[in-house]
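Hi R.,

As promised on Friday, here is the backbone we talked about, encoded as structure tokens. Could you run it through your design pipeline when you get a chance and send me back a sequence?
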């Protein structure tokens, strides 16, 4: 493998790792990022890590502080509400398009994604908090499956970017709502199979608003 391509591959893996560490709370909000230590831990040069952190800054996951370096972006109630509103706007638009265009293969993807999510919801209900990251990954996959037939890569990519920011708030508060969220997911599956976009969007609004209320109730986001 040419050195340049190997460098890109290592940098790409490091980008995905740092991004996931921020989203899933392993790098906590507001934490200062020590370049030397983080570069050594990731196995990349400081210059490569700096490029990665600049990219994450442009995505809103990291804050650049000039000569002081970088810090994980903080969280706030106001920002969470803005992200939730944007998620609803994008996801409802995509749901309407996807439900209208979806075929039997799309239905199979949605059913399969829901089945996987249910399995991890059951583990969360049993108090297995070590399953929290997998639970939220399958949550993401289910919502992505719902909109996967919308016909717009731009819309799908924009939704994924916003969903990751929303997911970060959920992981910060570890906000598992139990049976209520499970019922809402099941209702969205049923709406998809009968192509009822309006009912799906109404359920999604309750789902997102309920998730925010539950996160705020933990007191970890102010």
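Update: got your reply. Pasting your designed sequence below so it's all in one thread:
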């Amino acid at each position: 493998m040419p050195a340049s391509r190997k460098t890109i591959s290592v940098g790409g893996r490091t980008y995905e790792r740092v991004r996931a560490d921020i989203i899933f709370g392993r790098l906590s909000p507001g934490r200062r990022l020590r370049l030397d230590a983080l570069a050594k831990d990731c196995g990349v040069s400081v210059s490569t890590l700096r490029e990665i952190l600049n990219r994450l800054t442009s995505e809103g996951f990291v804050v650049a502080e000039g000569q002081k370096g970088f810090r994980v972006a903080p969280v706030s109630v106001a920002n969470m509400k803005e992200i939730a509103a944007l998620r609803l706007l994008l996801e409802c638009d995509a749901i309407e398009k996807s439900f209208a265009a979806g075929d039997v293969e799309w239905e199979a993807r949605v059913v399969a994604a829901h089945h996987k999510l249910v399995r991890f919801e059951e583990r969360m209900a049993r108090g297995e908090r070590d399953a929290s990251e997998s639970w939220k990954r399958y949550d993401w996959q289910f919502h992505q499956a719902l909109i996967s037939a919308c016909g717009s890569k731009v819309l799908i990519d924009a939704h994924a970017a916003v969903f990751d920011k929303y997911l970060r708030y959920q992981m910060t508060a570890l906000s598992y709502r139990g049976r209520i969220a499970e019922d809402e997911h099941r209702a969205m599956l049923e709406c998809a199979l009968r192509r009822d976009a309006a009912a799906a969007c109404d359920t999604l609004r309750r789902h997102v608003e309920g998730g925010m209320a539950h996160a705020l109730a933990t007191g970890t986001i102010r």
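One thing I noticed while checking it: Residues 173 and 201 are 24 Å apart (CA to CA).

Thanks again,
M.
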